[in-house]
Amino acid sequence: MNLIKNPTYLDSFAIIKADLIKYTPQLVFSKTRNREIPPKADSSSILITVQNRFFLITTGHTLHNRSLQTIGIMLENIFYSLSGKSAYHEPNIDFEYEPNKLDMGVVELDEYAVSILKRKYEFLQIEQMDFYHFNSKQFQYLIYGYPVEKTSKDINTKIISPYPISLFTIEETIENYLLNNIDIKRVIMLKGEQNRLLHLETKLEKTKPLPLFEGLSGCGVWRVEGLMSIKPEYKLVSMITGSTETQDILYSTKVTAILGILKMNFGLDI
């Protein structure tokens, strides 16, 4: 992590963002090996390492009913499919979105996939994940990932250019949890109204609309502390799974669900 003497509010977020991009690949989906047809931007993911094993975590609906051969990343505009073992719990299916579903997925990456990913990315240590996060409006959250709308494709060159976005927000009120019948033990509800979000790239230019939230599935939600300190702290607390139709609320599943999958499906003693 880079250190800045007497950091400003935005300096601190820039420091954190420089770290988060290392752990956050954009996932793409490809139905064919035909290189003339570029893959489609799909969702976000986070790379983690536990007990010298390497995993990619994302939403359950990203993995649901898909072969790992069709899901991958782009490196130097070459599609590399994921390889390893996958597991997912309670995926949300189109037109049947239920925010209380876990909708979490994990891929344990094999040696080949790890070697490919390490060309560009790093793996988050499990100590940087808060499995026992409690909800509070006192916390500040940074959402980091790749909206589909911010990913461009050049028709002639077939080059895909993803663009990450950083959104700063706070949690919904307890009253809204109750009103929407949301399980506070599983889910963090985040304010999604665009005039409530700090868009770090535009530095609070509220007149400039934010991109639509489609494609934010799998984005990490990071609890941020010490914004005005030389060394701000952050931990992964949840991952975006969906939103209300009007996108005034974003739903995220706590990473406690990931802990359960790692134990149940991958035999980790953690």
Walkthrough of the structure:
The chain is α+β, with helices and mostly antiparallel strands and 270 residues long. It has helices spanning 9-23, 60-63, 111-117, 174-179, 256-266; strands spanning 26-29, 40-44, 46-50, 53-59, 71-75, 78-81, 84-89, 104-109, 124-125, 140-145, 152-153, 160-161, 165-169, 187-191, 198-199, 220-225, 233-243, 249-254. The strands form four sheets. Strands 14-18-17-16-10-13-15 form a seven-stranded antiparallel beta sheet. The longest helix has 15 residues, at 9-23. The two termini are 27 Å apart. The model is unreliable at 203-209 (pLDDT under 50).
How much helix is in the residues?
10-25%
Mean pLDDT: 84
Beta-strand content: 25-35%
Rounded Rg: 18 Å
- The strand count comes to 18
Spatial gap, N to C terminus: 27 Å
Q: Low-confidence segments, ≥5 residues, pLDDT <50?
A: 203-209
Largest sheet: 7 strands, antiparallel
Give the ordered list of helices and strands.
HEEEEHEEEEHEEEEEHEEEEEH
The total of helices stands at 5
